What we know:
CATH class of the largest domain: Alpha Beta
Shape: globular
Distance between the termini: 78 Å
Strand order of the largest sheet: 18-23-24-31-28-27-25-26
Radius of gyration: 31 Å
Strand content: 25-35%
Number of domains: 4
CATH topology of the largest domain: BirA Bifunctional Protein, domain 2
Largest sheet: 8 strands, mixed
CATH architecture of the largest domain: 2-Layer Sandwich
Number of helices: 19
Amino acid sequence: MSEEKLISVTFSDGVERRYPAGTSLFDIVAEIDLGSNVPLVARVDGRLVDLSTPVTSDCAVKLLSFESPEGKGVYWHSTSHILAQAVKELFPEAKLGVGPSIENGFYYDFDVQNPFSPGDLEKIEERMRRIVKADLPFRRKEVSRAEAQRLFTSKGEDYKVELIEELDAEEQPIIYQQDGFIDLCRGPHLPSTGYIKAFKLLSSSGAYWKGNERNPMLQRIYGISFPEQKQLDEYLSKLEEAKRRDHRRLGQELDLYSVHEDVGAGLIHWHPNGAVIRNVIEEFWKEEHWKRGYKLVYTPHIASERIYQISGHIENYSDLMYSPMDIDGIPYRLKPMNCPGHILIFKTRQRSYRDLPIRYAELGTVYRYERSGVLHGMLRVRGFTQDDSHIFCTEEQLPDEIVGVLDLVQFMMDTFGYSYKAYLSTRPEKSIGSDEAWEKATNTLRMTLEKMGLDYQVDPGEGVFYGPKIDIELEDALGREWQGPTIQVDFNLPERFDINYIGQDGREHSVVMIHRTVLGAMERFIGGLIEHYGGAFPVWLAPIQVAIIPITDVQMEYSERVAEALKADLIRVWVDRRSEKIGHKIRDAEIQKIPYMLVVGSREVKEGTLSLRKRGEGDLGSVKLEEFRTRILDEIRKRM
RNA sequence: GCCGAUGUAGCUCAGCAGGCCAGAGCGGCUCACUUGUAAUGAGCAUGUCGGGGGUUCGAAUCCCUCCAUCGGCUCCA
């Protein structure tokens, strides 16, 4: 009997086992009972590999199922290969682009004569089902560069050939094959196509090769897959839920806003209901800024082009600015940003160190040219109102100012029920300012985040050219991320505008300038809020806070009296005077997502009470007017 | 801006292998009902069939073009 060498495999749970050298992970897995947690791939000494990989020396192994991010990624990536195989079988002339896994699912890009139709997607799905059923193994093979070149050139896969040419010199091309389908791919992959239990192709669209708009446009197919049909159904119903919450749909149903072709794309008209929400938020915003030492200012919506030459906006942002209009022979522009105006106000007098910090804040409406294809409801528009502020301070004051802004951010986001993550963006390649200034400011931002105990990630090189920044990402009720507050230090404008202050030493010093927004823009923020709340706004924001529902006309007068009493406290009340059955009125109030309903019948009139009903919760029994008034005012005050 | 799809009543949608007055449901209006916690019934009216141009005896339907919207790409508050 030959001497079989045993090697030691340590699993992630600490268990150590011995196997003959050359045993594949797949065979190892077969011996272990892992319950329903089917392993898909493994990390061997930290490297992600196929289960078909043999273990040849002592190693640490971590088996990964669909429950892990890596497992999901591999699962989806393998599904994309199945998609590609199906497409190649049905459309042999299609050329392959790339087909990675993404945050939710996967895609694959193809160069085809005719874009895919919805009917094509069905046919492709059908073909994919056959490939899954055949349970074809994914086979990995390392090939030489020349071999890979020859192989993909002979297949006419120009894009793959391009990818091979771009491989690092030391990187060896790897191909994966299932059945007759061969793809250039780093892997790893599932053991076989049969692992895919439930999948769906979701959409197709154009996408530029390598994401560059000068490159040819390929046709991309998106899809998703899961180990269980139930998970796919859940995912699809989550998509449905997101659709139900879509701010464009709710904006229409709840009569919040509209956009008009005759006015122009991306320009929002706020209806009374939407305007209430905006007004309440703006009042709250102003109040909070007053409390925190900001001074509110207003600046004009158009300005001579000269100011944007000084600020550098013409130079750096001209493609997002609207063309000039001629006024008395001078070119004027619609305001794309509020900063120059605030700076001019700052500069109207000489500032002493005693004046600083100066915090100017403005709900400033700006207009920016957005390409037609990117417009999206209230979230991506061409005219919007930023909750903008510029803080002018000394270098010493910078840390405290950042703390102040972050504290405001936390307070605001807690009020709206968002959780959030912070990102620190450092110096990009193309930038202005000294190394020293960058380092100082970046460190200040970093130290402040740490001091406040905020979790943050560093985005290296993602800062703006004029300074480092902190971005806050919000997570909404559906777990989706939104771009939120941003705090930017600016080394550029103080220099361009030559803004400074007189220090204690009687000499001029340069001002440190911070741009910051907390909500971003009213349009985008409220569009996001609509989805966050699914249209069911908390009482303090609800356009109509109380619906009073008389059962018959006999209770109309009493109802009106109750309404008047509540209106006196600025509570937004509506009396449903329609000659409808109470069930109908309640249904409509629920659909309109009105937080409170007060049902008034003869019993209530006789007893001088109200029958209280809460949105989504149903009948709460009878209350006295005073009792209800106290309750709702308390909720409004607490911004519940 | 690019690729694809869509655009018919206030809303959601049917009609679109060209051909009598363009339809349904919801909503609206009128009338009746006076109602107890998620849809009372009857009647009436819905309209430059996205805009412009063309083909045709005849266009919501076919072609061209512009606009808007939707899904993506690229870009972004």
